Amino acid sequence: MALELDRPDLARSDNFIDGIWQPSGAGAHYDVCDPATGEAIATVADSTAADAQAATVAAHRAFDSWRQQPAAARAKLLKRWHALILEHTEDLARLISREQGKPLAEARGEVAYGASYVDWFAAEAVRSYGDIIPAPVGSKRMLVTKEPVGVVAAITPWNFPLAMIARKIAPALAAGCTVVAKPAEDTPLTALALVALAEEAGLPAGVLNIVTSSREKVADVVGAWLEDARVRKITFTGSTAVGKLLARDSAPTLKRLSLELGGNAPFIVFEDADLDAAVEGLMAAKFRNGGQTCVSPNRVYVQESVYEAFADKLVARVQSLRVGPGDRDDSQIGPMINARAVDKIERHVQDALARGAMLLTGGQRLNGGVTTGPNYYAPTVLGDASHDMALAQDETFGPVVPLFRFRDEEEVVDAANDTPYGLAAYFFSRDVARIWRLAERLQTGLVGINEGALAAESAPFGGIKESGYGREGSRYGLDDYMATKYLCQGNLA
Ligand code: SIN
């Protein structure tokens, strides 16, 4: 089925470099596939290192005039872009749903979520204040200002094809940086449409450039940016393994980095929790985007005395979830992104069962009825999970909830922190003293306290340990794209 859009011109297949839509210099294309059926829905440019370099040249050339624009002028363009994104919500949601698989209603939510970062940073652009420092010697004047870091390379994931690129580009542009972007191989269409709307908003040529590439060419494109000293910053959301490679290969030119990497989020339910609220919190956090988020609870710890009651309530809720293609009104969980993703989920579940987990519901691929296609997996709950299972060590990135029993707070805090990752953690308790203890002891960048939905444009999103560094969103998010400069004026006499 072809892409059906009210604005067919938003379905782009070329790169956008220096204000011009153009095919890859090598003339190559690759197919973008619908994860529900595996069928090709569009073709886009399969770019080379030369295309990436052309984007860098354009962004570098545009940098001086863009940074010199008054912040208010940059904010005005971002506001126009924000308005256009909202105006075209329906088309953008269709693109997200078709290339990524999430249900349309959730895709509409993603458009609003991504747009909120553009709106937020339009407002932050005019608030990048500096400081005046009291001088130790009376005749001196000491000032601190902030400057854009320069050309930023944004490398974005497939799980939120609009929101993740928006929350990187918006602060970069607000700060006065110019951008070269590469969306995930599986989901380039939404990003291209977003850039088409930025062009329509009036962004000057070269300020925002985008190149697409297949999995085979990604190393050429990103490699060209890594080795180029004109690219001063890399912002990346994706796996920890790739984040480490980017950090290593950025070292020769000492680029700044923002890395939003993998997680292994614990979700803890204490015996004093409101169990119904905990189940709802878990449903929201776990099954958003079919479990394909880096903040998705990966290990659910339930205190022994409420374990059975919690498991029963959870299984009933999970069995009520409707799985189906994104364009069906009643779908709540769509297909997984691709065959590799489903294989990993299957591997994790099989490994857990072989090591003694109990299958409480789900536990298999779905292919029949409305779920005709290779990439559907049943929402699954596993009981009696243990730490020797692969799903306790590595994020499953799918609709699988493993339940672990615990005795007391000490034990569960140790277990929750026993991972190299540190992105998100959640816990449910009504004990105020415990709430503060846990909030401080959990080693993550984000903590949900009696809450499963964490992210917001006004809040700092990011991890610690091997989940990366840097923060997206909030008033802290602009700093990731700015360098602090100290000015010292001596005696004028
Ligand atoms: C992610 O999964 O990378 C981001 C999730 C979010 O923004 O909540």
Automatic annotation (TrEMBL):
UniProt keyword Oxidoreductase, yes or no: yes
Domain of life per record: Bacteria
GO molecular-function terms, A-Z: succinate-semialdehyde dehydrogenase (NAD+) activity
Alphabetic keyword roster: Oxidoreductase
Domain Aldehyde dehydrogenase: 21-486
Database matches in CDD domains: ALDH_F5_SSADH_GabD
Entry-linked Gene3D superfamilies: Aldehyde Dehydrogenase, Chain A, domain 1, Aldehyde Dehydrogenase, Chain A, domain 2
Pfam families referenced in this protein's UniProt entry, alphabetically: Aldedh
Keyword Oxidoreductase attached: yes
InterPro entries in alphabetical order: Ald_DH/histidinol_DH, Ald_DH_C, Ald_DH_CS_GLU, Ald_DH_N, Aldehyde_DH_dom, Aldehyde_DH_Superfamily, Succ_semiAld_DH
Active-site annotation: 260
E.C. number: 1.2.1.16
GO BP, one annotated term: gamma-aminobutyric acid catabolic process
Family from the record: Belongs to the aldehyde dehydrogenase family.
Protein name stated in the entry: Succinate-semialdehyde dehydrogenase (NADP(+))
Organism: Halomonas heilongjiangensis
Gene this protein is translated from: gabD
